[in-house]
Amino acid sequence: TLSSSSAASDVYKRQILRRKTLKVYPYAKMASERLVVLNERLNTIDSKSKRRRYTRRVQKFIEEELSAKLKKLTRTEGQILIKLIHRQTGDTAFNLIKRLRSGWKAFWYNTTANLFDISLKREFQPQTNHEDYLIEDILQRAFSKKQLEEQASALPFSYLELTDKWSSKDQKKK
To answer: Are the beta carbons of 124 and 133 closer than 8 angstroms?
Structure first.
C-alpha cells in the first residue's frame, strides 16, 4: 500500500504543478513578446540616453500593468515563472534585468527574490531537471489541447528526446 499512496501523492503533486504552470505561462509568453518588441525598437534608437529613457518607460508600463498580479503569485508560481521566462527568452531573468537596466538593479532584485527562495538566475533545464521536464510536458499537452497559445521555446531541446530519456529513467526505477 505504500507504493499506491506514493503514486497518489505524485499525481497530486503533478496536478498542483500543472495548475501553477498553466497560471504563469501567459506571463512568460507576454514577457518574451514584449522583449522582442523592445529589442526591435531599441535597435532603431541611436542615442544611449534615449534608449535608456525608452527602456525605463517600458519597464514602468510593465510594472504598472503586472505588478499587482505578480505580487499575488505564490513562491512556487514565482519559481516556475522564472524558469519559463528563461524557456521563452533564452536568457535568465537576472541577465535580462542586467542588460536592460543595470547589474546593480539585477543584483538587488535577485537579493530580494532570494528572500522568497527564488533565484532570478535559475534556468529551465528539462534535460537534467525532472521537474522542468514535467513543466515542459504540461505545456506540450496544453498546447496540443489548445488550452494555451503555443510559443516555441528559445532553448534548444527536443521534447520527444526528453520524453524518451525521462520515461526510460522512470522504467528503471520500477
So the answer is: no
| Mean pLDDT, range 134-156, rounded to an integer | 94
CA distance 7 to 23: 24
Question: What phi and psi, each to the nearest 5 degrees, are found at residue 139?
Answer: -60, -50
Contact 62, 85 (CB under 8 A): no
With cell 513543466, the residue in question is: 135
Q: Which pLDDT belongs to residue 1?
A: 43
What does the alpha-carbon distance between residue 82 and residue 119 come to, in Å, rounded to a whole number? Answer: 8
Q: Would the pLDDT of 96 be above 80?
A: yes
- Quote the CA–CA distance of 2 and 24 in Å, as a whole number: 33
The CA dihedral of 137, 16, 117, 119, to the nearest 10 degrees, is: 20
| Block residue for cell numbers 512568460 | 28
